[in-house]
Amino acid sequence: MYFRMDYKNPIYAISGPTASGKTALGVRLAKEIGGEVINFDSVQIYQGIEIATAKPSEAEKQGVPHHLIGYVDPNTNYTAADWAADAGVKIAEIESRGAVPILVGGTGFYLRTLRQPLFESPKTDPELRERLKLIAVNKGVPHLHHLLKRLDVDAASKLFENDAPRIMRALEVIFQTGELFSQQQPNRADPPEFASRIRLFVLDPPRDILYEKINRRTAEHFANGLVEEVKQLRAGGVNERGNALGAHAYRRACEYLRAEITLESAIERSKQDVRNYAKRQLTWFRREPDAIWFDGFGTDEQTFAELIKKLY
To answer: 37 forms bridges with which residues in the sheet?
Structure first.
């Protein structure tokens, strides 16, 4: 059942916690309505970061075009604003072909930045960023959050205490400009034309089953060579303190390779990290007032049937 889009038609976004079946649902929807997928997962964007990212295989894509996957050098300081700019270009390209853009991913900040552009801010200072990362490693991300709270209580109140990238960015802006981050945020650019056309669907499967799936999938990542992949990435010059290797299981694999923890501990801590991340994802999307929720996995027939009903 294919139909040609025009510029009044909606753009669809499918999100939810990790391991909830977003990819499967996005592909099925794309095949149903003649769509193409745009990734908004902040780890899947990196080249060479494969095993623990859940990047869709060619078989899983089922011939559906996918965009913004595996295209960023892992040592690049790639921001949400960079992704939003790239996604805007892809949306225009897809609609010019008469296809439907379908945004699929779990990085809520990327999607929000696409719909509500960030304010103009200074470029990241690599030296300052490294100093903040070192503090996070030695004293923990909550210590940085406490520092931000002392400097800008309004900015801190809007961020989770473990949201390292956004906390560090807020501190960078304060230190680089001498102005409060919260006072600069209202100076945003106007939303793009297509922002009001994005319809957001969020998966919220049963928590106990989701956690079992997360635990199983995390163990499989290690069994399938995650540590060896990290060894090769480090040997190839990828910064283990950077964003690419700072994600969940990759961070724990780096700790294991530095002999800071055992392999068993790396696996168990990774499971806990990913479960906590899933909780934060759900909390984030509950703040999106226009989200339409489904209480199943993206692979469930009932979920797909309910989604189709919501399209028309």
So the answer is: 66, 102
Reported as half-sphere exposure (CB side, CA atoms, 13 A), residue 170 has a value of: 28
DSSP state of 240: T
Alpha helices in the chain (DSSP H): 22-33, 58-61, 80-96, 108-115, 126-139, 141-151, 153-157, 164-177, 181-184, 207-223, 226-235, 248-257, 263-286, 301-311
Spell out the domains of the chain, with CATH numbers in brackets: 11-118+194-206+283-311 (3.40.50.300), 126-184 (1.10.20.140), 209-279 (1.10.287.890)
- Residue 43 has φ and ψ, to the nearest 5°, of -100, -35
pLDDT one-digit tens code per residue, 54-107: 899 999 999 999 999 999 999 998 989 899 999 999 999 999 999 999 999 999
Cα-Cα-Cα-Cα dihedral sign, residues 175, 46, 41, 143: negative
φ, ψ (nearest 5 deg) of residue 4: -85, 130
The vertex-240 CA angle with 76 and 106, nearest 5°, equals: 65
Report whether 3 contacts 34 (CB < 8 A): yes
pTM for the whole structure: 0.80
**Around 174, how many Cα atoms within 13 Å sit in the side-chain half-sphere?**
22
Residue with tokens 């004293």: 139
- Residue 149's nearest CA partner among 137, 161, 138, 163 is 161
- Give phi and psi for 279, each to the nearest 5: -65, -45
Query: Distance between CA 200 and CA 102 in Å, rounded?
Result: 10
What's the angle, vertex CA 72, arms to CA 118 and CA 91, rounded to 5? 55
Q: Which residues pair with 125 in a beta bridge?
A: none
Query: From CA 117, how far away is CA 104, in angstroms rounded?
Result: 19
pLDDT value at residue 122: 67
